[in-house]
Amino acid sequence: MGGSVHRGAAFRRASVPLSGLGRIWLGVGALAVLAVAGGILMLRRPQPLTPVADAEQLATRQPESVAALGSLRPAGEVRRLAAPVSGFGGSPRVSSLLVKEGDPVSKGQVLAVFDNRPKIEADLASFNEKIRSTEIEIPLKKKEVARIAQAARQGAAKVVLLEEKQNELTMLERKKVELIAERRKLEADLNDSELRSPIDGTVLKLRARVGERPGAEGVMEVGASQSMEALIEVYESDINRIKAGEPVILISENGGFEGELRGTVERISPQVRQRQVLSTDPTGDADARIVEVLVRLDPESTQRVSRLSGLKVIARFGSS
User: Fold this and answer.
1) Quick one: which of 160, 162, 134, 161 has its CA closest to 146?
2) How would you label 286-300 residue by residue, b for 16+ Cβ within 10 Å and e otherwise?
3) Which of 16, 85, 260, 296 gets the highest tally of CB atoms within 10 A of its CB?
C-alpha cells in the first residue's frame, strides 16, 4: 500500500509543468543542436564549379612580356674595306680620311686616300711620257725601214742594214705594248690608292687612323642601312616565350633616341651562348647564357635610327 503511494507521488512530480527558466534552457539547447547540424551539412555540401567564363579567362591570360638587352645594326650587308697591297706584301699608310663614323656614303664615293698615291701618280706620268715618245719614234722608224727597203731593192743598200732597221722597229712596237701594259697596272694602283665605298650605306666603324698602316681588320666597315635590325640577347630561361613574327617594342638604354621603335621577331638562333652585350647595371650577370633573337625594324623606325648602328636598346617582346 505504502509502495503504491510512493510511486504515484513520483509520477505526479515528473508530470509537473516546466518553469520559465527550464523552457529557456531547453530552447537554447535545441538551437545549438540545429546549428551543429547545419554546419555539418554545409561542410558536406559540394562546392560549386568554377564558372566557364572564369576558366576561359584563365586559359587566355597572357604571360608577362619578356625584356632583354641588345643593339642596333644594319639589316643589309656589312663590308670590311681593306687597304691595297703594295710592294713586298705590305699596305700603304692612310694619308687622309674623308669620312667619320656614322656618315652616310654612296656607292663609288672616296672614303680615304693612301700615302702611295703621289708616287703612283709620278710613275704614271713618267710612263705616259715614254709612251708618247715611243709613239713618235715608231712612224719615223717605219719611214726609215721603207726607205732602206727601197734602196736595198735597187742595190743601193745592204740587206743586213734593212734587217737591222726592221728589228729596231719591232723593238719599238714591243716597247710600246709593254709600256701600255705597265701604264694599265699603274692606273689600277692609282685607283686603289683611294678607298671607295662599294655600296650605299653608312660608315659603321673606323679601323685605322691617318698615318697608320691598316692591319688585318682593314680601314673601316660600311653597312647597307636601307633597313635596320636589332640583335637581342634573350636569357635562355625566357626564350620559350618568344615566337617568330611577334611584335617587339624597343627603347634606348642610354637615351640615344626618343620614344619607341617597333619591329617584329624575324629569327631565333638555335644556339645558346655567353652574353656579349653588357648592361650598364653593375649587378647584371655578365656570364649569363643567352639566345640571339633578330628583330627587323619597320620602315619608320629604320629611318629614325639609320645612323645609330651599335646603339644599345632594350627590347620588350609581345607588345602590340
Assistant:
1) 162
2) eeeebbbbbbbbeee
3) 296
Rounded Cα distance between 289 and 235, Å, is: 6
| Dihedral over alpha carbons 98, 100, 101, 105 (to 10 degrees) | -40
CB distance 305 to 102 below 8 Å: no
**Rounded average pLDDT over 150-171:** 88
CA dihedral 15, 19, 20, 22 (to 10 degrees): -80
C-alpha closest to that of 206 among 311, 98, 302, 304: 98
Of the candidates 274, 310, 307, the one whose C-alpha atom is nearest the C-alpha of residue 292 is 274
Each domain of the chain, given as residue ranges in start order, spans 16-55, 67-75+226-317, 93-114+195-223, 117-192
For the structural domain made of 67-75+226-317, what CATH number should be given? 2.40.30.170
pLDDT by residue (tens digit) across 253-287?
A: 999 999 999 999 999 999 998 887 655 555 555 56
Q: Which three cell numbers stand for residue 295?
A: 628583330
Task: Give CA separation, 99 vs 103, 104, 106, 203, in Å.
Answer: 6, 9, 12, 8
Instruction: Specify which residues 274 forms β-bridges with.
Output: 289
CATH number of the domain located at residue range(s) 93-114+195-223 in this protein = 2.40.50.100
Write the pLDDT tens digit of every residue in 211-229.
999 998 999 999 887 789 9
